[in-house]
Design goal:
Elements: E1 2-6, E2 9-13, E3 18-19, H1 24-31, E4 46-47, H2 53-58, H3 76-88, H4 90-110, E5 116-127, E6 142-156, H5 161-228, H6 233-248, H7 250-267, H8 298-301, H9 303-324, E7 329-340, E8 352-361, H10 369-436, H11 441-475
Antiparallel strand pairs: 1-2, 3-4, 5-6, 6-7, 7-8
Length: 491
């Protein structure tokens, strides 16, 4: 029996099949000082496999990625772009601002747990009229009154309504932190993908330029045969078509190159003119060996799963708060201070006054508002539970898909290299025969086109393998480390 410890919960996985109450964040809610009822805690009822299907096929070791996973590609330029994106990317900055907003909301919600205290000071001056009802004139009376007082009010949170509302706000703030981590992970994988796209475009442009040179060399040889009377005008026209087709491939590749450089510039918050990618070729990029670890570890490795946990925990706390609204609310208010007509006697004992009031309010009829609110929070909790379950199931599928993609693209790359080697040898032999005057023009045309296509496909196969590796890093959480960072205490 395997055991995965997840933030206060001991998740038992008998045979790796049934996960009995695995929602980690709800363990935090249940252990808090709130009044969450046990029946409010949902059971996700997840099936956790013993291992990934594709990992068993490849016999990968159980070790999750490191935090700086991009260093495995051994590119200083890529590492520099990654580090820059973490500090200046605008999406990450906006996500950071959002979790600060959530922290402020948590403090606002937590204020209801504490008494409110206010102080007042006043000076009043009044004068009565000097005229009587009979029209006689008498002296008016002037009155000056000074007062200083403190007033306080406090709601006894006997049923946990305010406590649960504050807990819900805190869990929302936690979810916003995980949301920032999701955006950071997406940003880093996008930087890596765009960088590799740039290198692939550079490789394909160089390949196209070599192919143009080769096609022009063959065209020169065919023209020589035509001038010697051993070739035809059709042979020349066909080869000219090959040269033109190769030249036409270059502009779209340059467009792809420029678009991905601009994408990198946006990710590092710089104008495109200031971004220069000198990496040059995919051949200099190492292909790290990525191991997925255990499926049970994915529950803590992926920030999107942790985000859904926190959102579900917030919804569960809201259910408790909505239930407490059915019960009476108890309010205590008090006021005390000093009042005197003479400022010098304001703080004398005889000038003191105070009052204390306790009140109880019980909802009797509200047209179904409280019941409707409770049913709404229950339905929202159910929605988030299903979303959490889907996120976990999708995470397992993402890892398996990425592992299988790495395996297939690696095999494709190996076979494509064999295709390039065979195609190059066939082309070289046909070119030698062409210069010796013994080659069939159709054979020459076929071998050169096959080589050109094979070399371009090789660059695409290299790119596909690197993108598959990046997708596995992303599926595993990108080496993300679960941080027990909590928002500022609402209390």
């Amino acid at each position: 029996m395997a055991t995965a410890a997840i933030e206060g919960w001991s998740v038992l996985i008998p045979g790796g099949k049934r996960l009995a109450r695995s929602l980690a964040v709800l363990g935090l809610v249940a252990s808090s000082a709130g009044c969450i009822l046990t029946k409010d805690l949902p059971d996700p009822a997840l099936d956790i496999p013993d291992g990934y299907k594709a990992a068993r096929l490849s016999k990968a070791a159980d070790a999750p990625p490191t935090l700086d996973w991009w260093r495995g590609f051994r590119s200083r330029e890529l590492t520099g772009l990654m580090e820059e994106a973490q500090t200046v990317n605008l999406d990450i900055a906006a996500a950071t601002a959002r979790f600060r907003q959530a922290d402020a909301q948590a403090r606002i919600a937590g204020a209801a747990l504490l008494p409110t205290l206010s102080g007042t000071g006043s000076e009043s001056y009044s004068r009565t009229s000097g005229s009587s009802a009979s029209g006689l004139s008498i002296g008016g009376r002037e009155v000056v009154n000074y007062s200083a007082s403190l007033s306080a009010s406090y709601e006894l949170d006997f049923w946990g309504k305010n406590r649960d509302a504050a807990q819900a706000a805190e869990e929302t703030a936690v979810a916003r932190r995980f949301d920032r981590d999701v955006i950071a992970l997406t940003t880093l994988t996008t930087v890596a993908n765009a960088y590799f796209q740039v290198l692939a475009a550079q490789d394909r442009i160089r390949t196209a330029q070599r192919n143009i040179a080769s096609a022009e060399r063959i065209l020169s040889a065919i023209k020589e045969r035509f001038r010697a009377g051993t070739g035809t005008d059709l042979d020349v026209a066909q080869q000219e078509s090959v040269v033109a087709n190769q030249r036409a491939l270059v502009p779209p590749l340059r467009q792809t190159l420029d678009q991905n450089i601009n994408a990198l510039a946006t990710l590092v918050s710089r104008p495109p003119e200031s971004v220069r990618v000198t990496g040059g070729t995919l051949n200099r990029i190492a292909a790290p060996r990525v191991t997925p670890g255990l499926p049970s570890e994915l529950l803590t490795q992926r920030p999107d799963i942790r985000r859904q946990e926190a959102q579900l925990a917030s919804a569960t706390a809201n259910v408790g708060s909505a239930r407490a609204q059915f019960f009476p609310s108890i309010q205590l208010t008090g006021q005390g201070g000093y009042q005197s007509s003479a400022l010098t006697a304001l703080f004398q004992p005889q000038a003191a006054f105070f009052s204390m009031v306790g009140s109880l309010t019980q909802p009797i009829f509200d047209g179904g508002r409280i019941l409707g609110n409770f049913e709404l929070t229950k339905a929202l909790q159910e929605e988030l539970l299903q979303t959490y379950r889907k996120t976990v199931v999708q995470a397992f599928a993402d890892v398996d898909n990425a592992l299988m993609s790495i395996r297939q693209t690696t095999e494709r790359l190996r076979l494509q290299r064999e295709v390039v080697a065979s195609s190059r040898r066939a082309f070289e032999l046909s070119e030698q025969q062409l210069r010796a005057g013994t080659a069939d023009i159709v054979v020459v045309l076929n071998t050169q086109l096959t080589l050109f296509q094979a070399e371009d496909a090789l660059s695409q196969a290299q790119l596909a393998r690197l993108l598959a590796i990046v997708s596995l890093y992303q599926a595993l959480g990108g080496g993300w480390e679960p941080r027990m960072e909590r928002p500022v205490d609402a209390l």
